[in-house]
Amino acid sequence: MAFMEEGLFLLCLVTFSSLLLPVSSRGAVYRPPTVERLTDRFPRIPFTQGMSTLYGASNVHLKSNGSSVDIILDKTSGSGLVSKNKYHHGFFSASIKLPAGFTSGVVLAFYMSNADLFPHNHDEIDFELLGYAKRRQWVLQTNMYGNGSVKTGREEKVYLWFDPTQQFHQYTILWNKYHVVFLVDNIPVREVIYNQAISSVYPSKPMSLYTTIWDASEWATSGGKYPVNYKYAPFVASLTDLEIVGCSMQKMNLSNTASTCSKNTTFSGLDPVDGEEYARLSKQQMVGLNWVRSKHMYYSYCKDTARYKVMPAECNVQ
Q1: Largest CB tally within 10 Å, which of 52, 151, 228, 302?
Q2: Is 128 considered catalytic here?
Q3: 156 is an active site residue
Q4: Is 314 within 8 Å of 195 (Cβ atoms)?
Q5: pTM to 2 decimal places
């Protein structure tokens, strides 16, 4: 009888353990749902092919013939890259490993923007990874602007279900006329669906892809309470597995986004994410999205009644 009880205990222990991932800074976390691997559908390219140095050239270190890169923040400068082309819709992804240790005030951004061309009515789609103080963790913030609506932030924040400093994890933006989807390791963490309520602030103009690491001491950690401590510098973020596949605007009039895409060697000029399969999330992806939002999201602008006396129109729809 004791043998049977011990066997049942071991079976339960194995079953329970299979649901858990290794312990992170917040304790054991549950294994995320299985989803389609969208990142396997598109080719990976060297950073030297898809991006150029934006600033901080001495802190941009290309590796493995340009297939990976380190971008660094130290006392002298931050650093960043920008795509060689601008895109109207597409699929944009990179695997990123964040700096470990005391990273309060440090921000790693992977985002799209056209502020250089449209300074007063620009669009933006943001991943921002916010560094942490001791006994805290990196936070993932997503944000979106359209037509210069920068006074009305659309931030959401989630705790990651893994330690982003130990291994590479994929951060992906899917943007088309149907929706904007933010994905982490192919799991949707946020979906912004195009509809009439959000149409005026939905990104609509060609954008460049950027990745930067910089000092955001003024706001990033507890509203600027914990600034960057350069005693722990340099802060090194590593990136690989770059995917940039979209409707390239390099040879087109940027104001005419309704035109046909310029020729894309992989997709023969077709918008790669315009098809029906990219118009809405699958059942698996919806399970993943709901898992993230129910277990890991801790802030949404649509629930911030202290900040917004009248909620943005799209909050009453989504």
Answers
A1: 228
A2: yes
A3: no
A4: yes
A5: 0.87
